[in-house]
Amino acid sequence: MTRAGLSRAAGALAALVACASAAPACRSDASAPAPAPQASEASAPKPPVDQALPGELAEGAEQAFGFPIPRRMKVSARFSDAVFAVGEIPAERVANYVRTRVLAGNVETGPAKTIFSRATVKSAPQRMIRIEVVSRAHISELVVRDETRPPAEQGLSVEERWRRSGLTPDGKVIDPTRLE
Question: What is the C-alpha end-to-end distance of the chain, expressed in Å?
Fold first, then answer.
């Protein structure tokens, strides 16, 4: 075969491949196969919306300053600035539960206690909280403390702010008998 003949044969083959690949796209057949999922979609299985992953704790109905208490934990005490909850769950699982729901300024991890300080709940970032996960024998204790500062009073002078705190502007105590 001559070069011209090979060139024509290659051109005809390319045209045939182009027509064959375009033909399924032109059809409006409902039985056409769905496009293949992208690599990122295929590799990450998504759990059903109403189920937790294996080993994951589910959120309960009770909350502490916007932080949802795990379903398997029970609130043992509630104060104006702290909520205590206990449950028979490994402390590591409780700490992982907390880690996924808060943004913490500092996390201290130890063998018996994990502390999330200067934390905010992702779903309610207006409060500053401190969360402690403590391991005690076969139970875990969750302590959530509200550390949100009250807003400063507007319109006060520097001297008035010092006086309301019980000090003079140079830091001396105004009335030492009030400290007793």
Answer: 112
Helix (H) or strand (E) holding 25: helix 3-26
Among candidates 80, 62, 81, which has minimal Cα distance to 72?
62
* Tokens at 53, concatenated: 């992953």
Torsion angle (degrees, nearest 10) of CA 90, 94, 96, 99: -160
Q: Which residues pair with 134 in a beta bridge?
A: 113, 141
Taking the complete model, does pTM exceed 0.70, yes or no? no
Residue that has been written with the tokens 């045939």 in this structure:
16
pLDDT value at 179 more than 90: no
Picking from 133, 135, 146, the residue whose alpha carbon sits closest to that of residue 95 is 133
* pLDDT digit string, tens, across residues 6-41: 455 555 555 555 555 555 544 444 455 555 555 545
Question: Tokens 């051109």 label which residue?
Answer: 11
